[in-house]
Amino acid sequence: MSGTDRTVSMTSTEETPSTPGWVESSLDAILATLPFSAEKLVPFRNAYLDCLAGCGRTEDLDSEHDACRKGLLLALKDGLNMDSETGRALEQKLEKLELDISAGA
To answer: Cα–Cα distance between 52 and 76 in angstroms, integer?
Structure first.
């Protein structure tokens, strides 16, 4: 078997985009305050975490976080009919989470 016959696969030592470990539990606590079941929130939660993980470590990190947050809020409004009052409260909690992420970046 030559080197060109092998498929490339990730090993445990390769870096993949991720958020700090504490972010998932913090996000879960935030989402638990919403009037939706955890099961319904799973795809929205995962998409938001993926978005945050893809944010670079740049000076423009805040605008990247803004885009992730706005995407989540819109998806929840469209997908689960989240009302505007709940959306505003969630937005404030997510902004705090993102500030904590930025502080640790």
So the answer is: 17
Please provide the distance, in angstroms rounded to a whole number, between the alpha carbons at the two ends of the chain.
43
Cα(97)–Cα(91) distance, integer angstroms: 10
100 SS3 class: helix
- Which domains are delineated in the chain? 19-102 (1.20.58)
Helix axes 38-54, 21-31, angle to 10 degrees: 140
Asked if 51 and 67 count as a contact pair (C-beta separation under 8 A), the reply is: yes
Q: Do residues 24 and 38 make contact, with C-beta atoms less than 8 angstroms apart?
A: no
pTM: 0.79
Query: Are 36 and 90 within 8 A, CB to CB?
Result: no
CA separation for the pair 86, 88 (Å, rounded): 6
Q: What is the pLDDT of residues 65-84, one digit of tens each?
A: 999 999 999 999 999 999 99
Coil vs helix vs strand at 62: helix
